[in-house]
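During the reporting period the student researcher (J.K.) took over the structure-prediction task from the postdoctoral fellow and processed the backlog of single-chain submissions. One of the processed entries is reproduced below for the supervisory committee.
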Amino acid sequence: MAKVYLLLGGNLGDRNYYIQMSEQSIDRELGAIINRSSIYETEPWGFQHEQNFYNRVVEINTLLNPQELLEKIHNIENNLGRERKNQQYSARTIDIDILFYDDLILNEPNLIIPHSQLHNRKFALEPLCEIIPEFMHPVMNVTVRELLSQCEDTLSVSKIDMQTTKN
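J.K. obtained the following structure tokens:
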């Protein structure tokens, strides 16, 4: 069984709803969620949009291999209204990225693990550091905490209190 860390994020519609629905689908179709970070509100990375993202990292145990996992992730995204556009970065209801798959290093045309941009994205590192700060990046050989401290991303990332926040 593999331990996998997924980043969930979206900025269209009811952001909290899409995070919750993606978690239910992940738990049902990919593997049991065994840990999750807080939800963070983050500025869009790589493009401009008036609505910020909600992001969360979940840790799962899965029996799926990386390609099977990716295929099922795309199905979950599609079922939750994700529209893929020509531009690389755009607004979306939900996006699910594979950050780590155990300590696997994989470089295939449609899938790179660990995620190739992880070290540049504070919106992924903050929630990841909340749950696995001492996890060693298998390519860069530094901890998640060290990646976050070295990250040059200056976009706003703030933990939110879901008790007082709607949408």
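The committee noted the following: The chain has one domain: 2-159.
J.K. will present the remaining backlog at the next meeting.
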